[in-house]
Specification:
With 368 residues, the protein is of the alpha+beta class. It folds into 2 domains: 5-86 and 110-229, no CATH class; 237-275 and 298-364, no CATH class. Helix content is 32%, strand content 24%. The protein contains 13 helices and 16 strands. Strands 3-2-8-9-10-11-1-12 form an 8-stranded mixed beta sheet, sandwiched between helices. Strand 6 and strand 7 (102-106) form a beta hairpin. Helix 8 packs across helix 11, helix 8 crosses helix 13 (355-364) and helix 9 crosses helix 11. It is globular and about 65 Å long. The relative contact order is 0.15.
Length: 368
């Protein structure tokens, strides 16, 4: 049985000080260039107090309101993914010593993050990425090292934007696992609960008082209100998986290809996409070279280049690969779905392609 406590707004700096004392890099939502993004914070005042976000297909806007809340917004522009699976990082380096011999050294950037305000959809995205980088046949030591050191404070949703569709995926606005501490913002603070031994130690260190029945009820009402606010949806996943896999020649692929720019914005914004490429970065004097890994996209032409041939030359094949993998064959590969319903791909598609509309069009005409 969960025990709930209350963290007043005015004690957020005590929480931040706890992590500073333990040597964490503290990442939290903040406002930068008219966007709500994760960044380093030093104090509670750095949080996006009073800000809300408006999201719809190809539209994003942040507005300052008079509401005295730090988490009135729906979703950050980017997820936690760049902290665990870095956009660009060195894997290993080779150096030539004074005798001309080559020496290889592994590179591991083992940063220690405390992340404040992780939405439930992004918690599920971390769980999916764990399947890819840790629980798969081959473990990624860099991801695993950062993941094991990460302290996660979830922020339950009390609102959503118009592109959210997590509920139709069987998920919802309440964090149920994958966090060290979870919190729900109410009028003058947060109703919090622990999800790990580290979370319990934090609550004990802060000496928080138990939440009252009125506070826990208000938190529950705010979270449950999201079920009435979210309208975008897709059919049951089992039906979607079957329909996408069985309709490789559906005319909808050609229809979406006429609109898709193959820009890769959807894959860059997605919290679960993991495509990457590797390249060498040699020094000019030839004494050393660094092997780099960086994000890639299945929408790029080079991504399908194999043995002198592009086997996904047309946009419709690239979009079909992305959507079918994300919502169908991902389960065969990793025993989980590949989407969390955050809607970022819809928000950041410059031509307003909506995955829920594309999926519904194919499932509606499925004859398999």
């Amino acid at each position: 049985m969960s025990h709930f406590y209350f963290l007043p707004h005015k004690r957020l700096d005590d929480l931040i000080g706890y992590f500073k004392a333990k040597g964490y890099e503290i990442k939290a939502p903040t406002v930068s260039e008219e966007s709500i993004v994760y960044d380093d914070i030093e104090q509670a005042a750095d949080l996006p107090w009073g800000y809300i976000d408006e999201q719809s297909p190809a539209h994003y806007k942040v507005t300052k309101t008079a509401e005295d809340k730090a988490f009135a917004w729906s979703l950050t522009v980017q997820s936690v993914k760049p902290m665990l699976f870095e956009e660009k990082e060195a894997l290993w380096q080779v150096k030539r010593d004074s005798q001309g011999k080559l020496k290889f050294e592994q590179c591991i950037n083992a940063r220690k993050y405390a992340v404040l305000g992780v939405r439930p959809c992004d918690l599920r995205a971390i769980e999916i990425q764990d399947r890819v980088f840790v629980e798969n046949a081959y473990q990624d030591v860099r991801y695993k090292t950062r993941r094991e050191q990460m302290f996660i404070i979830a922020a339950n949703c009390t609102t959503c934007h118009s592109n959210c569709f997590c509920i139709s995926l069987g998920d919802g606005p309440q964090a149920d696992k994958g966090f060290d501490m979870a919190m729900t913002e109410i009028d003058d603070g947060f109703v919090v609960e622990s999800g790990s031994d580290d979370g319990r130690a934090l609550i004990e260190e802060l000496q928080l008082n138990p939440a009252t029945g009125q506070q826990t009820h208000l938190a529950e009402v705010k979270v449950n209100s999201v079920y009435q606010k979210q309208h975008k949806s897709i059919p049951p996943l089992a039906q979607v998986e079957k329909a996408l896999f069985a309709n490789h020649d559906h005319p909808q692929w050609e229809d979406v290809a006429k609109r898709c720019l193959s820009c890769g914005s959807c894959t860059q914004a997605c919290p679960t996409c993991f495509c990457h490429t590797e390249k060498e970065q040699p020094s000019l004097d030839g004494d050393n070279s660094t092997h780099i890994r960086e994000w890639d996209s299945c929408f790029g032409l080079d991504h399908s280049y194999t043995h002198g041939e592009l086997y996904r030359e047309k946009p419709k094949y690239r979009y079909r690969q992305w959507l079918t993998h994300k919502f169908s064959t991902w389960r065969d590969q990793f025993r989980t779905k590949g989407c969390v319903g955050c809607g970022r791909c819809v928000t950041w598609c410059p031509v307003s392609i909506d995955v829920t509309e594309e999926i519904n069009a194919i499932v509606k005409e499925d004859k398999s």
